[in-house]
Queue: 2 jobs
Job 1
Amino acid sequence: MIIITTSILLTFMKAKGYFSLRLLFDNYISVWGIYCQQGLPEFPKESPIRLVFLSLYISSIIILAVYSASLISYLALSTPRLPFSTLEGYVKDGTYKFIVMRNSAEYDVPSRAKDAILLKMYDLLEKKAFLPHRLSEGFKQMCEKSNLAFYTTEVFHQAINFQIKCNVVYIDTGRIDNLAMTLTKGNPYTSFINYHLRRFQLNGVMGKLKNKYLSKKLDFSGYMSYGVVDLSDITPSLTMVGASMIVALLVLIIEKGYYLYNNRSKNNKLAIKKFNYNLGVRNQLQKRNNQNLTININQKLYNTRPIGYWP
């Protein structure tokens, strides 16, 4: 789509009052050559067309880099294929048991949960005698047994990530855990504590404490994490390409306006020059006609004079 649109745009930019299929085909081949990392046989002299080709070269480099990175990551990284990716799929599959920490908040979820999917999921819970007392025991059971899931939070997983002996994957449950301090009803310190907690969160103090006391437990030696590249990450590149196209269109409009104004001025000058030339020729012809008329009148007067008298 980009190649066809750009080819048509270049054809209209190069065409001066006429449209040619041959010119469209040449531009189509040139654009294809740019995206195939080929050069142009002749670089244009017009500034708008130069900007368009520059934008095409930049976009081709970006597309080639993205395609190469995607292909290399697809060939080099092994992405596990899960039999399910949601809680609904997990419940529908029914072949995986799951465990939670004994006497934890996750263990008491069925007593206060109203979600039907969550309640059906707890039908697959292991017996209480097989539930772990610590996080390390839970992940150890996951690595030793097949078709077993561990229901816990991501924070706990990150806290002991270096102790896990196998590769684990997760599915998003959409559940958010909150921590709270229990105070008596009507406690005068409630608003004071809430105010300062909110202030620490807005000022970044909570994130700093989290990175200082929680992340230091993680062992990043030999471990690399790759984030997902979304649209916001490539916004600067797309902005550069879009801005160059807009500048090219503006320069094209200015150049077209100047071209029309210049042609109109030239046409006016040519019309005035032609009018002056025609007027001069007309004056010369009229002057010559007047001279010829004067000569004819003199000749007639001379011919009508009497030569002499006869006796």
Job 2
Amino acid sequence: MKSPWLALMAALFGIGIAFAPAGPAFAQQDDDDDDKPAASAAAQADDDDDDDDDDDTQGADMVPAAEGLKIPPGSEMMPAAALNGDQIGLPKNSLSSQIVTPLILGEGGKPFTVNHTDFYLRAGQAYRWDIKSEGDIEYKFNAPDFFRNVWMNQIVIDDLEIHMAGAPAWLEYDAHGTITVQFQTVRPGRYDWHVGGLDDEHEMKGTITVVP
């Protein structure tokens, strides 16, 4: 005859086996539920990041080209650090990027024209600059000293972003299109830009002046 204690232990052991899988099953279900809000939050964060550029562009200050500013006569002979952004009419420094008036290379039937030649910017300000090709020839936009003296954020072509650890050699256009350069100026200075590969008769060039 079996001891009552042995019978009781056997019964309890059987109950333990019957209910043992329930714990991990419930735990797994809880983990899955916890992961869903985290995944949703990550997806929302990605969406927010994608919208940042659009939000910054809306309502951003537009920086006019030189002819829209109050540039004193003979200032091209002065050091850039001697000029004053407030006096020449540049927008105040802001935390968001400012939009530089687009530079357009060429136009229909006039491949060697540019809409503006000279640009003025403030030191320590973030900018976005659209450089467009509307002519029917190939353009190589060169501004090596300028690119080396700013903090390059990114270059955007058709919503595709290029991030670099240094300055681009040049921007090349084999067809009509826009390249957006996003950067932050660092120090005052006057820098030349030009379209490479053209003879003197058809040269396309100008300046970018960064002032305090």
